[in-house]
Amino acid sequence: MKLTDNLLRQLPKPERGNKITYDDAVKGFGARITAADGRAFVLNYYRKLDGRERRYTIGSFPDWSTTAAREEAKRLKRAIDGGSDPVGEQEEDRAAATVADLCGRFERDYLPRNRPSTQRVYRQQIHTDILPALGRMKIAAVSHADVDGFHHRLSVRAPTHANRALAVLSRMFSLAVRWGWRADNPCRGVERNQENKRHRYCPAPSSPGSRKRSPCSPMSRRPTQSASCS
User: Fold this and answer.
1) Where does the chain have alpha helices with state H?
2) Which end of the chain is more exposed for a tag (fewer CB within 10 A), N or C?
């Protein structure tokens, strides 16, 4: 029989397990109904690599109409004929490393090389900012826009802190490239917030004709002079 939305609504649910009603128009395309009355479209196919039978879930009804699901089944069948394996690709995607995995390796393999104070700061940024925002994302799926959005949201409340968190994230993705987890660093090109430089001043000299205050930063010192800052 040819599946339609009306027919799918009328098909009874099984007493237990699930039952698949196949479509006459597209081979392997069917509607699966469970004992809990869940209804979804599936596609049965044979993997070209080894002939293994697979079943791919297209989507649930009525989120997917029968017509749309049938067209998706046709598209998948064309890809399968070309060597694609939708179920295998789905399994690989589920098993792919996440940003949380990257954070774990970063803490395990990279952080111990740093000073204890640096380790504490990096861990705080990872667990407070990076993991809640990006931890569940696949490493390969994180885009420049994702990182830019992450930095922007942090910048609203703490611009300088946002820059520091971005620096840690960038270092992590540079290592991800080195470890072969992705080909590029999505943090590159994200515009940092402008930070106001803090200037320290030397105490005013005691001689009457001298200037009242002078900058005491390393950039302002001359090699032939020395100054003491409190």
Assistant:
1) 5-10, 66-81, 86-95, 99-105, 116-125, 131-134, 144-157, 159-178
2) C
pLDDT tens, residue by residue, 116-159:
999 999 999 999 999 999 999 999 999 999 999 999 999 999 99
- The answer to whether 42 and 58 are in contact (CB under 8 A) is yes
| Helix spans in 29-158 (H) | 66-81, 86-95, 99-105, 116-125, 131-134, 144-157
User: What's the rounded Cα separation, in Å, for the pair 12 and 14?
Assistant: 7
pLDDT at 80 over 50: yes
**CATH at 66:** 3.30.160.390
CA distance 114 to 175: 15
The CA radius of gyration of the chain, in Å to the nearest whole number, is 30
DSSP-derived letter for residue 227 is -
- What are residue 131's DSSP bridge partners? none
> Are residues 119 and 112 in contact, defined by beta-carbon separation less than 8 angstroms?
yes
Residue 222 lies in a domain: no
Q: Do 129 and 103 share a domain, yes or no?
A: yes
Report the distance separating Cα 180 and Cα 9, nearest Å: 48
Q: What is the DSSP letter of 98?
A: B
> In the numeric block, which tokens belong to residue 25?
């128009």
Is 17 a member of any domain? yes
Other C-beta atoms within 10 Å of 29: how many? 24
